[in-house]
From TrEMBL:
Membrane topology, from the record: Multi-pass membrane protein
Composition-biased stretches (Low complexity): 27-39
Species annotation: Panicum virgatum
Basic and acidic residues compositional bias, start-end: 1-23
Protein name as catalogued: CMP-sialic acid transporter 2
Length: 355
């Protein structure tokens, strides 16, 4: 009897353990199913929706940027001061960064990483990229004396080469063989798009335009790499704080440019003399483009930025056909296709980190 009682008790214990084990497996399966449905549910849809909106915004902003600059001209020249336009862009970006930071203060409070007060050592690194961006942004106005909007969009991709080389030199980052091949394709694509079979000149863009494009690429590449080094030096620092100080110095340097280049015109005619509705749209476009790039890198990825850049080149060319009677030649189409492929290869050809 004692043996049977002990046996029955052991069987009950085993049955209880089986039930508990079954319950745990069922609970685990339910949790996994719930987690999977959540990932593909509203949260996944919201992420996809946000990426789609940001991608569309960046594509439209990028494609219309060059068009608005050309469109803002009157009789082939700018009636407004390009230095005041640059200052307005920096001011608007600074304001948007501060508003985003203020929203963070309201939701998270003021912390060590998001406060505006800082040390001299931290602030002292921002003047270098600020002055580089100022010169580069001024050049983008003057380059349109030699190139059209679609050509500008293609030549602007030369900054990928300068950025890649400077990454290797300054940040000691290794480039893959695919990325180096992409650089060669990019140069070939930019050159092909400029072929001019109907003239004695091999290339449509004069040497001054090429020099400005190369200068812009070097300035943009160096400023971008230097800014990334600053940001990654203190990764926990709120990006809006870093942008705020960068744009503050951008405003200061553009104010100096106004005093040097357009002081008399601004004093006599006013700061906003010559501004039109198109000029205001152009300034808004430049400011929002900078914000959109930040959002793409935060909420999407670099592939999205690549697609936006490639589609923007084609959109700019198509719109320019109707607005500025641009001739969409076979050389331009083939060149823009090669540039798009090279940009994509450069993005996917990043060296894999060793685990």
């Amino acid at each position: 009897m004692e043996y049977r009682k002990a046996k029955d008790q052991e069987s009950d214990d085993i049955s209880q353990k089986d039930v508990e084990s079954l319950d745990m497996r069922s609970l685990s399966h339910t949790s996994a199913t719930s987690s999977l449905s959540t990932a593909g549910g509203p949260k996944g849809k919201n992420t996809w929706k946000l990426k789609s909106i940001v991608t569309l915004a960046l594509t439209l902003l990028t494609s219309s940027q060059a068009i608005l600059i050309v469109w803002s001209k009157r009789a082939g020249k700018y009636e407004y001061s390009v230095t005041t336009a640059n200052f307005s862009v920096e001011f608007l970006k600074c304001l948007l960064s501060f508003l985003a930071l203020y929203r963070t203060w309201n939701s998270q409070g003021i912390t060590e990483d998001n406060r505006l007060t800082t040390s001299f050592d931290e602030v002292s690194v921002y003047p270098i990229p600020a002055i580089l961006y100022m010169v580069k942004n001024l050049l983008q106005y003057y380059i349109f004396a030699y190139v059209d909007a679609p050509t500008y969009q293609i030549l602007k991709n030369l900054n990928i080469i300068s950025t890649g080389v400077l990454y290797r030199i300054i940040l000691k980052k290794k480039l893959s063989e695919i990325q180096w091949a992409a650089f060669i394709l990019l140069c070939a694509g930019c050159t092909t798009a400029q072929l001019n079979p109907s003239s004695d000149h091999v290339l449509q863009t004069p040497i001054q335009g090429w020099m400005m494009a190369i200068g812009m690429a070097l300035l943009s590449g160096f400023a971008g790499v230097y800014t990334e080094a600053i940001i990654k030096k203190r990764p926990s620092r709120n990006i809006n704080v870093q942008n705020f100080w960068l744009y503050i110095f951008g405003m200061l340097f553009n104010l100096v440019a106004i005093c040097v280049q357009d002081f008399g015109a601004v004093i006599n005619k006013g700061f906003f003399h010559g501004y039109s509705f198109i000029t205001i749209l152009m300034i808004l476009n430049h400011a929002l483009s900078g914000i959109a790039v930040s959002m793409v890198m935060k909420y999407a990825d670099n592939i999205v930025k690549v697609y936006s850049t490639s589609v923007a080149m084609l959109l700019t060319a198509i719109v320019s056909v109707f607005l500025f009677s641009f001739h969409l030649s076979l050389a331009f189409f083939l060149g823009s296709t090669v540039v798009s492929v090279s940009v994509y290869l450069h993005s996917v050809g990043k060296p894999q980190q060793q685990k």
